[in-house]
Every structure is written in structure tokens, then in C-alpha cells.
Amino acid sequence: MCPLLQPRIMKEISISGISPEDLNITQEEIGDLTHKCDNLEFALHERIAKLYAMQSIKDFTIIDKKEIEKEEILIENKLKNLEKQKETLEKEIFEVSKLCFQKKQKSAALKDEAEMISLQNETLENEIEDTKKTIRLIGE
């Protein structure tokens, strides 16, 4: 028992007009009761501290939950933007692929046309040679 508390209790008992002897309580019992009260008071303070800590944790948890929800919304918005960008890129890739295919077709057509011109040129050169031979034969 805290020796400082015992005189206080004794003083409180005598102020109330009742002496410890009237209550038929020994000094030892008063000490035990004081000790029990001290323990209860300490336990009460511990419990109050735990409740404050729990409330603080709850408050932080609520704040953290709100922050997490905000982050989730931001991430969802970023994901939507990325999906839109992906769609745009896919459309652009399709258009570029289409243009590449068209260029390949044009290139193939130009190659075919070049071959035709080359064949026509060869044919004309052969005709020119034949005409020159004919002119030489006529001139002889």
C-alpha cells in the first residue's frame, strides 16, 4: 500500500465523522482496500489509455481507408485513360497497317508496270532492229 494514501484515507474517514474503530476496520484492512483501489485506478487508467489508442487507430484507419479509396479512384481513372490510349493506338496501328498494305499493292503494281514497260521497250528495240535490217536490205 502507498504510505502516502493511508493518512489521506484516515483523514477522509475522520472528516466524515466516522472513526476506523466505528467501522470495525483495522489499519491493515484499510491498507488492503487502499491497495485494491490503487490497482483498480491503475487498471482504469490503463483501460482509458487503451480506449484512446483504439480510437486513434480507428481514426487513422478511417483516414487510411479514405486515402486508399482515393488512390483506387485515381488508379481506376489512370486505367481508363490507358485503355483509351490503347484503343487509339490500336486504331492508329490498323490505319498504318492498311496504308502499308496499300503501298505494297501500289509497289507491286508499279513493279508489274515497270516489267511491262521493259518488255515493251525490248519489243520496240527488236522492231527497230528489224526495221533497220529491212531498210539495209532495201538499200542494197
Describe the overall structure:
It is rod-shaped, with a radius of gyration of 53 Å. The longest helix has 113 residues, at 27-139. The chain has one domain. It has three helices and no strands. The chain has helices at 5-15, 20-23, 27-139. Keywords: Coiled coil. Residues 65-134 form a coiled coil.
Mean pLDDT equals 82
- Describe the main β-sheet briefly: none
For the secondary structure, the number of strands is 0
Proportion in β-strands = under 5%
Helix content: over 70%
The gross shape turns out to be rod-shaped
Number of domains: 1
Topology as H/E string? Answer: HHH
List its traits:
mainly alpha; rod-shaped; 140 residues
Write the layout of secondary structure elements.
Layout: H1 5-15, H2 20-23, H3 27-139
Provide a quick synopsis of the model.
Keywords: Coiled coil. Residues 65-134 form a coiled coil. The protein is an all-alpha fold and 140 residues long.
